[in-house]
C-alpha cells in the first residue's frame, strides 16, 4: 500500500492528488529539492514544507504551503559554523590529519544545524499540526536525519532525496555491495585503482565507518531514542526508506549492483538552458 501511494506521488501522469510532507535540509541541498517539490505541487498534490523560522539559504515560493517552527539558533551562528567547516576543508593538511580535522568540523556543523531539529520536536504546536494533518508520505533529505526521525514518529512511509551519507550508509542500509577492492572509502582520497597498501587502508577504514558515523550522528541517535522511546541504530532509521532518489548519475560512480528502490536522478538540479543560436 505504501509503494502505491509513493508511486502516485512521484510518477508523472494524471492521478488523484496526495498529501505530502517535505522535510528539507537547509542550504544548497534545498535548491535541487525545491524544483521537485514545485513539480509535485503543479501535478495537483498538496505539499507542505516544514522549515525552521531561522532558515539558512532557503527561499520559498507560493507553490506550496510552508509551516515554520521556532528555533534557538541565530543566522550568525549558522553562518559561522559553516564558514569554519569550509575553512577546515581548504586547510590542505596531510593524511590522516586532514581526515581527523574534517571529521571534527563535520560533527561540529552537524550538531549546530541539528539543534533546529530538536527545536522542532520541542514545538508542541508544530507536532500537533503534523500529527493531525493526515499526510500520505514524507519526502526528506536525510543528511541531518530530522525527516527520518519524524517519519518514524508519525509512522509514515518516506522517500529519500539525497546525494549520500558520509559513511557509505546509502549503499550499506539497502544492502547494496561496495567491493573494497575498487570502491574507495571516504577520507582515503584514493581512486578506484589502488595499490595493495591502499586496499589494506581502504579495508581498515571500512571497519571504522559505522563507528565514526555513530559519532557523527550521535545527537540524532540520542534524539531518536527520546522521541521514539526505543533504541534505534543508524541502519534501523534509514533502511525502511521506500524509495531512494539519489542525486547523482550511475555512470559517474563506481560500478556496483543497486537495489530496485534506488533511483538515480543525477542532473535533476541542472537548469535547462536555451538552445544555442544557429
Automatic annotation (TrEMBL):
Q: Which residues form the signal peptide?
A: 1-17
Gene Ontology terms for molecular function = glucuronosyltransferase activity
SUPFAM superfamilies, per database record? UDP-Glycosyltransferase/glycogen phosphorylase (SSF53756)
Write out the GO cellular component annotations: membrane
Entry EC number(s): 2.4.1.17
Tell me if Signal is a UniProt keyword of this record.
Answer: yes
What family does this belong to?
Belongs to the UDP-glycosyltransferase family.
Name listed for the protein in its UniProt record: glucuronosyltransferase
Give the originating organism. Answer: Vireo altiloquus
Lineage runs: Eukaryota, Metazoa, Chordata, Craniata, Vertebrata
Amino acid at each position: 500500500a505504501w509503494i502505491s501511494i509513493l508511486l502516485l506521488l512521484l510518477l508523472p501522469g494524471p492521478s488523484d492528488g496526495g498529501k505530502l510532507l517535505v522535510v528539507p535540509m537547509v542550504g544548497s541541498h534545498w535548491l535541487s529539492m525545491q524544483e521537485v517539490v514545485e513539480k509535485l505541487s503543479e501535478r495537483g498534490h498538496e505539499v507542505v514544507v516544514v522549515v525552521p523560522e531561522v532558515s539558512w539559504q532557503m527561499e520559498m515560493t507560493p507553490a506550496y504551503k510552508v509551516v515554520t517552527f521556532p528555533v534557538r539558533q541565530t543566522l550568525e551562528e549558522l553562518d559561522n559554523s559553516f564558514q569554519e567547516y569550509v575553512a577546515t576543508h581548504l586547510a590542505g593538511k596531510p593524511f590522516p590529519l586532514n581526515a581527523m580535522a574534517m571529521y571534527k568540523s563535520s560533527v561540529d556543523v552537524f550538531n549546530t544545524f541539528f539543534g533546529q531539529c530538536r527545536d522542532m520536536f520541542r514545538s508542541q504546536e508544530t507536532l500537533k499540526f503534523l500529527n493531525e494533518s493526515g499526510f500520505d508520505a514524507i519526502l526528506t533529505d536525510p543528511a541531518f536525519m530530522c525527516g527520518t526521525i519524524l517519519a518514524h514518529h508519525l509512522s509514515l512511509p518516506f522517500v529519500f532525496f539525497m546525494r549520500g551519507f558520509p559513511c557509505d550508509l546509502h549503499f550499506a542500509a539497502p544492502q547494496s555491495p561496495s567491493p573494497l577492492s575498487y570502491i574507495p572509502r571516504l577520507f582515503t582520497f584514493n581512486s578506484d585503482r589502488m595499490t595493495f597498501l591502499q586496499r589494506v587502508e581502504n579495508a581498515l577504514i571500512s571497519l571504522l565507518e559505522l563507528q565514526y558515523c555513530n559519532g557523527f550522528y550521535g545527537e540524532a541517535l540520542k534524539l531518536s531514542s527520546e522521541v521514539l522511546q526505543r533504541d534505534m541504530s543508524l541502519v534501523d532509521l534509514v533502511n525502511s526508506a521506500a524509495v531512494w532518489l539519489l542525486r547523482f548519475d550511475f555512470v559517474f560512480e563506481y560500478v556496483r549492483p543497486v537495489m530496485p528502490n534506488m533511483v538515480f536522478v543525477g542532473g535533476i538540479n541542472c537548469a535547462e538552458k536555451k538552445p544555442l543560436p544557429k
